[in-house]
Amino acid sequence: MPNTVVQSIDYRSGDSVLIETKNAVEDNHLPVRATKVLVTVPLGVLKADSINFVPKLPRSKLRAMERAGFGALDKFIMYWDDRTMSAFPQSSLAWDNLMDQDWLGLILPPKMMGNFTSFFNSRSYSGMYTLTAWIAGSDARRMDAVDDETILHAHVMPNLQIIFGKEMPEPTAYRMTRWSEEEFSRGSYSYPAVGKSHSDVVQRLGEPVNNELFFAGEHTSSRWYGTTAGAFQSGRAAATSIAIAL
């Protein structure tokens, strides 16, 4: 159901699960009843208690949520049209010489490092002048409060001009992701917290509850946590478990 937000999951009855939802566009509530429910929301949403589980989830699962780390990884995506780059032949030539390098990085003295020193070069795949700057952890969260234009001028362009030359023009279009501020993600990826047994945490996060609530997502994958592959693998495993339980 598009534009529909899950507000609560009630599994008290023992023979079915009641899901209370709200349509964000029409502002109406729609209850849904099911025998099995697969919960695939990101770990950040679970940590934020965005969904009200009735009764509360088992203590072991709640503790696992607390113990698991959930980080931020954002991208500053840039595009230059052909007309812009043709007006700056030296930078265009420098980019041509880097065509076969997927990753462009800078190693600078600490005082010069800045926040964006790794760039994914997708020109060889798309044929277009596109770069994606990566930023993670506390640096990414600090950028949440900075507007895109300031990020470009103060943090990205100085490093690009080191790679491509001083004449490197500003991109035609650009945008920063801010996953920590997204209501339905609240971050980007799970990770092992310092001093915690991550294998035990992952196991608890992925355990079914009462053979009615099943859980999937990258945070439930012991091998591929933090990746799309982990989310896919865990979803297939959970679907198999549900099929067996039906």
From TrEMBL:
Residues 3-242 form the Amine oxidase domain. It comes from Minutocellus polymorphus. Pfam families: Amino_oxidase (PF01593). Signal peptide: none annotated. InterPro entries: Amino_oxidase, FAD/NAD-bd_sf, Flavin_monoamine_oxidase. It comes from the Eukaryota. GO terms for molecular function: oxidoreductase activity. This is Amine oxidase domain-containing protein. Gene3D superfamilies: 3.90.660.10, FAD/NAD(P)-binding domain (3.50.50.60).
